[in-house]
Write a structure and sequence with these properties.
Elements (H helix, E strand, L loop, with lengths): L10 H13 L4 H7 L6 H13 L3 E6 L2 E6 L3 H17 L3 H10 L5 H16 L1
Antiparallel strand pairs: 1-2
Helix pairs in contact: 2-3
């Protein structure tokens, strides 16, 4: 069975995007050095080129090296991934996601209180 094409970022693509969000425009070497794991220069270069083809980064030539910069924000990527998770794992139900977080103890009572406050503030708008 063929893999379905996804615009969501792979774990490695996401790691690279985190570097670019933190550092701003960077060349391959800078991205490679900022990653938490050691990867070959060519691997990082290939991943940045894939991100460019996906429209997630743009590159510009500067002093004989390409510099890559993100063209999507961290919050945009977060929304995309959360929508995908809610759709695929919880049948489109955000409530089921939250209930799962509560049941698995990923949401503390303090976090639930903050969440309740946000809900109340949103209801007032």
């Amino acid at each position: 069975m063929a893999r379905r094409k996804t615009e969501n970022l792979t774990p490695l693509e996401l790691e690279i995007m985190h570097v670019l969000w933190e550092t701003g425009p960077a060349n391959v070497q800078t991205v490679q050095q900022q990653l938490k794991r050691q990867l070959a220069y060519t691997t990082v270069q290939t991943m940045l080129n894939i991100l460019q083809r996906k429209g997630r980064v743009r590159r510009t030539m500067k002093d004989r090296a390409y510099f890559y910069r993100p063209v999507v924000s961290r919050s945009h990527v977060t929304r995309e991934h959360m929508s995908d998770i809610v759709d695929r794992l919880f049948g489109g139900s955000a409530e089921s996601l939250v209930m799962s977080l509560v049941e698995t103890k990923h949401l503390t009572s303090k976090a639930l209180a903050r969440l309740q406050k946000l809900v109340e503030e949103d209801a007032k708008k």
